[in-house]
């Protein structure tokens, strides 16, 4: 029996659209074993009522890809999923399923694929590397796609960094949150995001939280997605006022994430209250980066 633990992830971190992500200390577990015949999938935990138990299951599909690539396939497969990452909220639940399925299946057949091959495969499945790279490697990962190969730089999360995530009680699919984005952006906005992403990476490498006030600014996706998340801009402002060093949409949303080093209780309270004042019920959780 193989057992794999995969972390939640927060992608983009403001300006790093599709190329920056960080693993968080919140985990899904994938257990996998070869059986004599058939496919048996059990799911427990978050979203258990919505996750398919048939061959359309993401973990199963990822496992099938590994078996196909290495041309080794168990006669039957039993998968058990224990999920803590909320579904379709911007915390990397689908990346965790993909990465968990790939790692577990690879281990089941003797680990013929390297970590790099698993990352490239995971990115091909997800379409972008910013969730799957930290889900696989941990820490903060900056990724660059070169044809089908993903180049990564891993950064250790700065000491003392804490995160407050406000998870609304509604789901938002990545597909829907990408459909509102423009196909083209102005040179001005491109330069804006380039400069902020450079500052973000410098801030993270130096552990300079004060730089996050500018390093989390974004013009490529958050302004367009704000319309899908009632109160988003007000929650950002309230969290900053309460002491958050920066606030961002987590992945494609709807979860919002505050980055802080102190005042965590107050930041959590104002994020929850401000969402509530805008008609959104949410669960607020304090999470640390997964190194
Ligand atoms: N970079 C992705 C997005 C993350 O923002 O759409 C969600 O999968």
Output the keywords.
binds L-homoserine, 10 strands, 27% strand, 6-stranded mixed beta sheet, EC 2.7.1.39, alpha+beta, 291 residues
Which class best fits the helix and strand makeup?
A: alpha+beta
Q: Estimate the helix proportion, in percent.
A: 25-40%
Poorly predicted sequence stretches spanning 5 or more consecutive residues: none
Number of helices: 10
Strand proportion = 25-35%
In terms of quaternary structure, what is this? Answer: single chain
Q: Order of SSEs, N→C?
A: EEEHEHHHEEEHHHHHEEHE
Biggest sheet record = 6 strands, mixed
Number of strands: 10
Distinct compounds present: L-homoserine
Distance between the termini: 26 Å
Return Rg in Å: 19 Å
Average pLDDT taken over every residue: 97
Structural shape: globular
How would you explain this protein's 3D organization?
Pfam families: GHMP_kinases_C (PF08544), GHMP_kinases_N (PF00288). GO terms for molecular function: ATP binding; homoserine kinase activity. Belongs to the GHMP kinase family. Homoserine kinase subfamily. By secondary structure, the chain is an alpha+beta fold. The protein has ten helices and ten strands. It has helices at 58-70, 93-108, 115-126, 132-137, 174-179, 187-206, 212-215, 222-225, 232-241, 264-277; strands at 2-11, 20-35, 38-45, 76-83, 140-146, 149-155, 162-168, 246-249, 256-260, 282-287. Strands 1, 2, 3, 4, 5 and 6 form a six-stranded mixed beta sheet that branches. Bound molecules: L-homoserine. L-homoserine is lined by residues 11-12, 17-18, 128, 130-131, 174, 177-178, 221, 251-252.
């Amino acid at each position: 029996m193989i057992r794999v633990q995969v972390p939640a992830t927060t992608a983009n971190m403001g300006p790093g659209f599709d190329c920056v992500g960080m693993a968080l200390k919140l985990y899904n577990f994938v257990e996998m074993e070869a059986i004599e015949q058939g496919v048996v999938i059990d799911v427990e935990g978050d979203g258990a009522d919505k996750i398919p138990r048939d061959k359309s299951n993401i973990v199963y599909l990822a496992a099938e890809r590994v078996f196909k690539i290495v041309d080794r396939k168990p006669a039957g497969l039993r998968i058990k999923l224990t999920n803590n990452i909320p579904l379709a909220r911007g915390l990397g639940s689908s990346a965790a399923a993909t990465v968990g399925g790939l790692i577990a299946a690879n281990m089941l057949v003797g680990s013929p694929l390297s970590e790099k091959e698993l990352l490239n495969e995971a990115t091909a499945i997800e379409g972008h590397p910013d969730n799957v790279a930290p889900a696989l490697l941990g820490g903060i990962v900056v990724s660059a796609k070169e044809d089908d190969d993903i180049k990564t730089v891993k950064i250790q999360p700065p000491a003392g960094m804490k995160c407050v995530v406000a998870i609304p009680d509604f789901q938002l699919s990545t597909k829907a949150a990408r459909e509102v984005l423009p196909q083209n952006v102005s040179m001005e906005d491109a330069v804006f995001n380039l400069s902020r992403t450079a500052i973000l990476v410098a801030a993270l490498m130096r552990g300079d939280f004060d730089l996050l006030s500018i390093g989390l600014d974004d013009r490529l996706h958050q302004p367009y997605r704000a319309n899908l998340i009632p109160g988003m801009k007000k929650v950002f402002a309230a969290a900053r006022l309460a002491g958050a060093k920066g606030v961002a949409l987590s992945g494609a949303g709807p979860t919002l994430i505050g980055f802080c080093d102190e005042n965590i209780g107050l930041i959590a309270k104002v994020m929850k209250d401000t969402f509530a004042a805008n008609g959104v019920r949410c669960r607020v959780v304090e999470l640390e980066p997964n190194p």
